[in-house]
Amino acid sequence: MSINRRDFVKTTAVVAAATAVGMSVPKNLMASTPGTSEGGWRWDKSVCRFCGTGCGIMVATKDEKIVAVKGDPAAPVNRGLNCIKGYFNAKIMYGADRLKQPLMRVDENGNFSKNGKFKPISWKVAYDEMEKQIRKSLDELGPTGIGIFGSGQYTVQEGYAMAKLMKAGFRSNNIDPNARHCMASAVGAFIQTFGIDEPAGCYDDIELTDTVVTWGANMAEMHPILWSRVTDRKLSDPGKVKIINLSTYTNRCSDLADVDIIFKPHTDLAIWNYIAHEIVYNNPESIDQEFVDKYMQFVTGFVDTGYGMRKPDHPSFTDLERQTVKKEVSKKISKEEAVTLGYLGYKEGDTLEMKHNGKANGHWAISFEEFKKALEPYTLNYVAGLAKGNAEEDLASFKVKLKLLASLYMEKNRKVVSFWTMGMNQHTRGVWVNEQAYMVHFLLGKQAKPGNGAFSLTGQPSACGTAREVGTFSHRLPADMVVSIPKHREVSEKLWKLPKGTLNPKPGSHIMKIFRDLEDEKIKFAWVNVCNPFMGTANANHWLKAARQLDNFIVVSDSYPGVSAKVADLVLPVAMIYEKWGAYGNAERRTQHWKQQVVPVGDAMPDLWQYVEISKRFKLKDVWGAKNIPGLDGGLADVLSEAKEMGYSPDDTLFDVLFANEEAKSYAWPDPIGEGFDNTEVAGDGREIKGTNGEDWKGYGFFIHKYLWEEYRTFGEGKAHDYADFDTYHKVRGLKWPVVDGKETQWRFNSKYDPYARKADVGEFAFYGKALKSIAQGNLKGPDGSKGKVDLTNKAKIFFRPYMDPPEMPNGEFPLWLSTGRVLEHWHSGTMTMRVPELYRAVPEALCYMHPDDAKKFGTAQGELIWIESRRGKVKAHVETRGRNRMPKGMVYVPWFDEKVLINKVCLDATDPQSKQTDFKKCAVKIYKA
Q: What does the mean pLDDT of the chain come to?
């Protein structure tokens, strides 16, 4: 089909507009058949490699190289725009130090040595050593002796394959994504509140709302394309549309905001309760009583749950560290907590014993009267005094802002969308504060409606699609199922064609615990996938030391030599995004697929290939016999007899059973959907790569990506996690699940838009999630077993959660708050973006942002080099007092993209006790001149 420029522009505009409002589009407009320009460039649709926004891009290739990228005008997410990182998707692939060969630490004889130097080796030698080290760990420690650092940067097929390999093959649940660091608290709140994961709304809420409230989000830098849509909405009706930015420091979102609220770290818990107090006590007419009565249940939970740290008697802690970690066992009630925990009878100076660390998720039903009673302390005067974060701001002014914030939420006909990211998720009470957002929206009936809703924005490109939906968490299986529930294991074993009892019922180690297990020598083989955890995880001094000094073997699959690769024992070079087939799932539930555009560089191979190849090295008799699992009575049963009855042989490999079974081989290659495109894993790619067996790599011969997708989507079919077929995604710009009868879902739980809500047939809404819908009843003090349980089918929960202090706060010795995060120009640890000359020149190093008066107070000045020191470690950085991030007195901010300023050596590895998400946003530090 030929098309001129005018028709092209008109067509893409129609597609974008139609898709945005949920209209179906004629097939001839959706086709993604690559076009060829006059210069011989081939253009094809793809997806951005960076954040969870999920922008569509167009990729141009020529002579086996990506020569250009641009925003896809047909993509409904970004409508042709890219942010500064997005425009450099091509250049991230061609850095000068791109890894092109496997590297291993070897001695002078070429044998592996923990203290050896990196030398190039073949894929066969690499896999021979990997097999040896995995077997060693399995023999010594069993299935729990191996661990996988995963990521929300896995493609869907990669994450699914690794989860299947670990859980169905090695029978280990020690796989967890670095997405645990960025959105696990959001997940915890979704599951507890709704009974199912992921947002109810979509990005179209931006154009439909009257009010955008950002809570610890800094969308201008972290989700710039969405912020451009917010900006456009504000400018379209500046009188009516209001923007409120809540943050612990002034940032780029502040420049657009009508109201900028700077609060003290951790006090967002109190601010949400203040809004609820205003609703319940002073404006009860604003409550959507019919909605609340029909669809809601008030609940609360335990407060004595600790802070997700190790116990203070751990031998690796210094005395300074113990000053903080002792609070995992008990703490003294502060003046502020005496007010907020008064409903439990606590007074200032009392000792709070952490009796429910292991039952942090426990919650029970309470009455509205109890809920109201718990909110009583959160008056304007109390909360303003507690939460005001800018010492230079007048208290009366801060009160005015809080009152305006509450009034905008409560205004009867005003639509409100609340957005948040790490500022609320990276929090030792992250699940609580997420639940508080739903508390306010539910009270007002402003949830699951166009232009109304609380919306968690995801950080990584497939943290929704892979970490959450696929189930690469240590406790999860695909489609919101969990390993600890027998029915969920039964369903998974059936779909994976496994003998009954194959799957391990004991949740594995979350990402922080994998690090702790390495230090404690409970895990001895670890494989790092699509992330840089030794740079990206808090309290990094512990983990860097453990990696190099202990008896373990660490494999890192990466594209560049980041910190994790440098501390590894074996480094495997990986194909980057457009050198492989894949799919991502973004923050609005939109799944997007792309095709391999070019052949990988050097001897690099796709991550999926690397995971599948190791499965060839292990037979069923190696892994499906009886296995000891610490903490699991009786361990794992021997399932080899049942496997034999199913037609398997003990000598079958995991490859034969999990990845190359009859169903897999039925997905033939060539496939029309791949015509004209390479497929390295399936057919080879002409590079004459020597594979893991030492022979020329010719490919699997069947379309493994398609097989994995089609098998994976069976998990969610008919369970409100429905997806379209593989081919459809290659013809459209993504679809928001659940996809039912070929149509995506815009607003979940709303019967007008969601077929599952209509099917429930209980009215305008149906909160149909299945998890945690039968709970105990009680009062504010605790559950009452004599009252029985309440059934919450098709209902959601309004949680009361109190304000509590974080475990570490500034004092005389460490007088400053430290917060960490990102900047617009760099992605996570900078592994890719620091290789782009333009991005490196724009922001070549991580700076320590601080208030000019603090710089003067501590004897330093703009541009000078300082030490930033905590109870755990110290790093050097240059002072920035005039930058984009304008700090209040008493707080500093250091982004974490720069390995030369490895700020995570300083950070505290406290986590939310429910979600296990790390709190990177607050710890106490001191600074002094270097």
A: 95
